[in-house]
Every structure is written in structure tokens, then in C-alpha cells.
Protein 1
Amino acid sequence: MSDLPLQNNQDDRISWSCRHTWRQSSVNTLWCLLGCSIGDFGTILFFQINEIPFPMLGIMTLAIINGLITSIILETIILSKQMNIKEAFNTATGMSLISMISMEVAMNTVDVIFAGGVLVWWVIPIMLIAGFITPLPYNYYRLKKYNLACH
């Protein structure tokens, strides 16, 4: 343990009322949601259509992994318009995994709770809302405090 006393530094506080930052973090979160949804929904739908007998936890785990992969691919494509492909890939892979994983877990939890892990049309909007709202405060915080975003 350090001998230094803990200090409450007022400069470490951030404002949660900045519309510009909420707007930018919302746009960033929507791009991530699009990328994650492609891999996530695609995986669940693949197992569902092909009626592959596989444990639901396994399908949801694969859906999360594929969602992360497709999100990184989409971000790389988007960022490659602003920088070279290597920098774009490094930036995309350096995105916040906390944000992406929380988004994926929220979406799949909603699917399991409301539809038993089956992808049905009416659960998709609820999954997307949960996937958007869950990481949004963290993305705002990260953007506001560190000026770190993937776009």
C-alpha cells in the first residue's frame, strides 16, 4: 500500500451533460452495434436454420465471438477511409473490448430471457436497444475523459 493519502481531485470529474459527446458516443456505439449484430445474428440464425444440435451457451459464446470479429472488420473498413489499412486494423482491434463484450452479452441475455435463445423477429429490436444502451455510458465516459473513440 502506498503511504500517500488518497486525494479527491475535482479535475477528474466529467460532465455527463455534454450533448456533443453524447451524440458522438451514440454514433460510435451505433457503428459498433451494426458490426456486432451482423456476426451475432448471423451465428444464431445459422444454428437455428440448420437445426444443429449444439448447447445454447455454446451458440451464444460463438455469437459473441463472431460479433466481435465482424465489428472489428467493419471498423477496419470504415477507418481505412481515414488512414492506411494497417493503422485502421490496429485502431479497430484497440477499441474497447469492455464496450463490445458488454454490448454482446446484453444482446444475447435479452435473446435468452425473452425468446429462449431463438432469434425471432420481435426480439431483435429489444436486443438492439439493450445492445445500444448497455455500453453507451462507458463509451461517453471514455470519449469525454480520454478523448478515445474508434472513429
Protein 2
Amino acid sequence: MEPQGVPAEKSVGSVDPKVLRQTIEDLQVTSPWPGFFKALCSISIMGVLIWVSLTRESTFSFVLWACATAFFYSSIFLLTHDAIHHTLTGWKWFDEIFPRVLAYPMLWYHGIYSALHKIHHKMNGNDINDPERPQYTEREYRSVGPVRQWMIRNQWWLNCFVWGGFGFLFKHYWQAYKFYNKSREVRLAIWTDVVGVLAVQAFINLWAYSVDNWWRAFAFFLILERVMGAFHQFRSHIEHYGLWGKEANPFETQIRNSRNLRTTRFMSLYVDHLNYHSVHHAFPRIPFYHLREAHQRLLALYKRFGRPMAEDTSYLRTGWRLATNPVVVREETQQVIPIANL
């Protein structure tokens, strides 16, 4: 589809925000049914996988099925992200309740993350206090000792393969604490999530203990935590690492400070189409099933304006490049600087 409202001639510079909005306006409407049926099918398959995993007699079979469950859970867990923006179904009650069904069994505090994620959308690329800023500043890097500097240089490896899911939990709890006195939504979310997580965990553990299966349930949780933690640390790092700096308008700040990835149709489906991440950041009201179309329209629009949108190829290739080329943000100039050049 040809972008709407685009002048015939090319022009170099920022794209008019009005033109950006017009280009994708019809895609910012959420129908409840795609997300509802995806959620219903996902939770049904998840229930079967959990039952099959926990009823395996051999340890090998149990671990194999637990890993399969973790990989599936990693993908459907991204439905909680759609729910934050109320683009899963558009039914506010459903988009508030369903993600907690997915999140609380893994100790994940959906309300806290929801509040922080909305702050992230406002601060991405232009405010160093962004709670999801993936790279450190030059000042932060220079202010710590050699061990901590080594950890910053190897941030990706540590996040994915050491800290994992528990590291993700701790990071966001810490960020929630920092925003506790600044955001009423964060304060409310903390208390709501603490009560919700404790209640769900009490139920799960009492059930596991009552059927004399507590240790297996605990081992199952640890397998999920390792696999899901590695995947989501990997994904979230790629989405923004190495990108920073304010642009001419808020839409372009989001577009230029988030990463789009060319990948296979399967991988795009697996990550809930968040490989079109700059599109999502610029227009968070676009539901997951319209992100690909929105991306195609914006590609054509920016090409017409002489400012091609940057894209990377492959999650694995991009992850390796970012992991082996650590950077920091120089606050004075808002530039991203390779640590090797310091």
C-alpha cells in the first residue's frame, strides 16, 4: 500500500509527524478476536505442556518436556506486553487480568513492569533516567572499579547466561523502588503485585506439596526461569542497545532509538512481531498483527523522504555484534561511544 499524504518529491530531513500518523492511522484499531483466540489457544497448550512435563516418570523426559514448555512460555509471555498497551484484545478488563495469569506463576510483577514500561516509552532515547535503558553512561562506566567495568563490557553474556530471569526481576524491582516516590502508578502496582504474586505462589506451592511433588515443581520452575530469562534478556537487549539520541520530533526519537530486525516469518511470529520494534515504539496503539504492515508503510515513507529506516538482519547475528562491541552513552553529546575507544 502506498503511504498516504506523502509529497511526490523527495525531501531530506525529518518526516512531518502528521504524515507519519496519517500513514498508519487505520492500523491503530484493535479488534478483540485475534488476541483473544491467541490467548485462549496459548493458555490451553501451556496447560497441556505443564501437565505432560510434571507427569513424566524419567528425569530425562521431564527435563526435555520442561525445556519445550519453557520455549513455548517464552513466546506467549510476550502477550503480557500487548496487554500493557491494551492492544491484546482492547478489552481493558481482559488485558489487565490475563497477563497476570501468565506472569504471577513466574514471580513476574506485571503491574510494576506495566508502569515502568510506560515510563520507558516516554523516556526512550531522550532521558537518561529511562528505567529500561540498556547501555550505561560514560560517567557510570568511569566511576566504577575494574571488576564492575568488566561486568559492563560483558553485560550481554552475564544478563543472558548468569543473571537470567532472576536478574530481570531484580532490575525491575530496583527501578520500581527508584520511581516509588515519583509515580503513583508504580506505588500502587508494587503493592498489588506483591499481594498477587504471594497468593499465586502460595497456591502453587501448597498444591505441589499436597501431591508430594514439590521438588519436581521447583525444578520445573528453575528450568523455566533459566530458559525464559535468557531469551527475554537477549530480546530486550537487542531492541535498544547501542541506540541513543533525541530526534526532531517524538515519533522519530522513538523510531531511531529502537531496532527493527529482518528475520524469518517463524521468528517474527515467535517474538509477537516485536522485531518491528521501532514501529511499536512510535505507535504503541498498533496491535501485534498489524505491525508488519505498518513497518512496510513506514519503510516506503522514509525511503520517499530520503531517510531510509535502519534495519538489522537476524537476532543471532545482531546479538553477537552487540555483545562483542559494548558501548556507553556520552551524556554531554548524547552520542553512543564504543568502550574500546575510551
